[in-house]
């Protein structure tokens, strides 16, 4: 048999073999994952929040990939699962535990039609702040008994200490609803003030905000996941120092999606 006939036979055999390869064994379209953490530092006990964006390539264009089954991992340990919505977004919230630096990773194992992908980000868990408990009325000591006044003495000279200055108000610089059931705000600290923490207030009417959550001194953002789509929420932020709580910041309004 000549070499020309041998080459033709090999080519026909390869073509027939390729036709028999199932669709699941062929190269799946590329998948791209974006991972955003709303804060790189989170006090222990509070929520690590963010959003995942999953896209796939169709032709030469990246488009959202809905229904992607995702796995969320912290330091190699599975902490939860989720799926992307119709817009390819998957918001998440997990409690932050263990003071120190950690690695948060989101994994997409892929399927018969899409390639697998993953993305990781580092974050730091800082010591949490705990508000002191209210005083127990049952433990309030009785008033002291009256005593004889001491002999008249010349009072020592006194020095006047100026009272601590209450801080100025923070400024909210960003308020948005980046994903379903999520509202995200950012603020700037008041100038020339040593802040010990922040408080975020929320309401459904302007001026009717009530306490929502506390943040540490190094935090400059907050995510609210307890919202209802289509409802408009109003937010203000206050700063805390040794002198007390500052006045309210500027008020912002966001409509949840």
What name does CATH use for the topology of the largest domain? Immunoglobulin-like
Name the poorly predicted regions.
Answer: 5-25
The CATH superfamily name of the largest domain is: Macroglobulin (MG2) domain
Radius of gyration over C-alpha positions, nearest whole angstrom:
30 Å
Question: Helical amount among residues, as a percent range?
Answer: under 10%
Summarize the structure in short.
With 257 residues, the protein is mainly β. The protein contains one helix and 17 strands.
Can you characterise this structure?
There is one protein chain. It contains 1 helix and 17 strands. The relative contact order is 0.15. The longest helix has 17 residues, at 3-19. The chain is 7% helix and 45% strand. It folds into 2 domains: 28-126, Immunoglobulin-like, CATH 2.60.40.1930; 171-255, Immunoglobulins (Immunoglobulin-like, Sandwich), CATH 2.60.40. It has 257 residues and is mainly β. The model is unreliable at 5-25 (pLDDT under 50).
SSE layout:
Elements: H1 3-19, E1 31-37, E2 41-43, E3 47-58, E4 61-64, E5 69-74, E6 77-83, E7 89-95, E8 100-108, E9 117-126, E10 171-179, E11 182-188, E12 197-203, E13 210-216, E14 221-224, E15 232-241, E16 244-245, E17 252-255
Parallel strand pairs: 2-9
Antiparallel strand pairs: 1-3, 3-4, 3-7, 5-6, 5-8, 8-9, 10-11, 11-14, 12-13, 12-15, 15-16, 15-17
For the structure shown, list the relevant keywords.
elongated, 2 domains, mainly beta, 1 helix, Immunoglobulin-like, 17 strands
């Amino acid at each position: 048999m000549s070499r020309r006939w041998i080459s033709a036979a090999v080519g026909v055999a390869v073509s027939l073999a390729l036709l028999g390869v199932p669709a699941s064994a062929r190269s799946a379209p590329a998948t791209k994952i974006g991972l955003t953490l709303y804060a790189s530092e989170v006090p222990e006990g509070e929520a690590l929040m963010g959003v995942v964006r999953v896209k796939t390539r169709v032709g030469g264009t990246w488009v959202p990939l809905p229904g992607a089954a995702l796995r969320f991992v912290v330091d190699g340990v599975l902490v939860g699962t989720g799926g992307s919505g119709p817009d390819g977004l998957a918001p998440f919230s997990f409690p932050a535990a263990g003071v120190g630096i950690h690695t948060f990773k989101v994994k997409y194992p892929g399927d018969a039609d899409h390639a697998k992908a993953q993305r990781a980000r580092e974050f730091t868990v800082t010591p949490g702040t705990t508000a002191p408990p209210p005083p127990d009325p049952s433990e309030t000591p009785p008033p002291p008994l009256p005593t004889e006044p001491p002999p008249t003495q010349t009072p020592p000279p006194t020095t006047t200490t100026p009272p601590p200055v209450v801080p100025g108000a923070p400024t909210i610089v960003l308020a948005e609803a980046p994903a379903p059931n999520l509202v995200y705000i950012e603020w700037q600290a008041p100038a020339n003030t040593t802040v010990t923490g922040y408080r975020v207030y929320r309401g459904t009417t302007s001026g009717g905000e009530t306490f929502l959550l506390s943040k540490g001194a190094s935090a400059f953002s907050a995510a609210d996941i307890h919202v209802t789509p289509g409802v408009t929420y109003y937010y203000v932020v206050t700063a805390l120092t040794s002198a007390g709580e500052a006045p309210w910041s500027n008020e912002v309004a966001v409509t949840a999606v």
